[in-house]
Amino acid sequence: MKLALAVPPAVRWIARTLEQAGFETWTVGGAVRDAFRGAESREWDLTTRATPAEVQALFRRTVPVGVAHGTVGVLDRGGTLYEVTTFRRDVETSGRHAVVAFSDSLDEDLARRDFTINAVAWHPLDGRLRDPFDGKADLERGILRTVGDPAARFREDYLRILRALRFAGRLGLRVEERTWRALTGAVERTRLLSPERIREEMERILGGDTPPSRALGLYAAAGVLRVLYPELASLVGLPRAAPGDWYSHSLRAVDLLPVRRPGHVRRRWVALLQAVGEPEEPGGGEEGALGPAERTRRRCTVLLERLRASNAMVRGTAHRSAWVLHPPAGDATAGELRRWLARTGRDALPDLCRLWIASARAAAMHRDPPGESGGAWPPAPELAALIRRLRSIAHSGVPLTVRELAFSGRDLIGLGLVPGPAFGDLLGHLLDRTLGDPSLNEPAALEREARLWIRARGRNARQSGAGG
């Protein structure tokens, strides 16, 4: 069978170079699958009989993407990288990783792939289609099924469980019954996967162009949330003050955040985790004295550290998640808004504004009555006014941290205060006074405030500056 597909000229060039050297070469993977659907693909991968060393010898500009696993990156004239992988066969599988060997057979390479829709190869020079498992027909029928026995396929690599849910959600496919039974029967084994692979799968869902709620709804139905994301599983069925549950609300907010903007994956993480502090721990537990915002921060931190996210991602995501359901009141005074911004920080405000808008729209989609959304988002006009006020304060130059004060530790030393714990107390006092009255943020006024603070505490203030 032959099929005409639009293919980048560089893919033809790579295939022609390999074929002319005597190495059978085909395109595989997402680009072929997307082409069947009439969708444009940014990633064209090739598979060939050539070994990595032979590929590197044929092309001047290559990158050793994964030579041990048979993959070499070939760069075209514009610097775009195309992955070229040697035909492979599985030698040993453990559920976490496969040991592979190079093969001379395309069919053997296709037989080791996970799902029929991914076990299709297309020849970019003559248009031949190799589809031994009817993947094209499955895609047209809207079905996702494994190549061969589903239970055996998942035992080879339990990451395929997460991949199945991602593909089904992204492509709008129905998981075939035998495949679904094997998938849900093996879901407990996803605990064997490395945290990094689990996190990367989630980020592929959150970073995709299709609504993440499709795949994340399947995560809940298959039991993946219960096994890998118990913090999110506790939101399924957890009622809000308005109709619906917290998991559904969070998924709607995730879907409403635009993609292809810097930081969109991080913001979608935040929207997904925004309500993890809502369930109260039975019996109070260690979190008994914490409010929902602080519980959210703590549970986000635990979840992301478990997934071995970077420290910056853990801090930033947990911090923002804690504030999504807790914006300041629409009628807050300017001083209250400045103090609120001092706690959240200027850097977090752009993300929080986008998240509030998405969450408020998600609530409106469910016809939440004003003020009964389960969050504190005011009606759209009031929310827009609140955001304008916060942005105006953030851009005004008013100090929100002690480092932004027109007075520093060096000035305190000039007043005779010895460096020590009192420095922080005094600078915090000066910041608090300035948040209440920004006109105080000039050296003379802050010096007067500092002298009053020191005088009120007498000799003890100077001594405590030295730490006692």
Q: What's the mean pLDDT score?
A: 89
Major pleated sheet: 7 strands, mixed
Spatial strand sequence of the major β-sheet = 3-4-5-2-1-8-9
Helix content: 40-55%
CA-based shape: elongated
What is the CA-based Rg, rounded?
A: 29 Å
Approximately how much beta-strand content do the residues carry? 5-15%
Content-based structural category: alpha+beta
Q: Ends: how far apart?
A: 86 Å
Total helix count? 22
Number of strands: 11
**Spans with pLDDT under 50 lasting ≥5 residues?**
368-375
How would you describe this structure to a colleague?
Helix content is 51%, strand content 9%. The model is unreliable at 368-375 (pLDDT under 50). It is an alpha+beta fold and 468 residues long. The longest helix is centred in the C-terminal third of the chain and has 23 residues, at 443-465.
What are the SSEs and their pairings?
Layout: H1 9-20, E1 25-28, H2 30-36, E2 45-48, H3 52-58, E3 62-66, E4 71-75, E5 81-86, E6 88-93, E7 98-102, H4 106-111, E8 121-122, E9 129-130, H5 135-141, E10 143-144, H6 150-156, H7 159-171, E11 174-175, H8 177-186, H9 195-206, H10 213-222, H11 224-228, H12 230-233, H13 246-256, H14 264-273, H15 292-306, H16 311-324, H17 334-344, H18 349-365, H19 380-394, H20 409-414, H21 421-436, H22 443-465
Parallel strand pairs: 2-5, 10-11
Antiparallel strand pairs: 1-2, 1-8, 3-4, 4-5, 6-7, 8-9
Helix pairs in contact: 6-8, 7-9, 7-10, 13-14, 13-18, 14-16, 15-16, 17-19, 18-19, 21-22
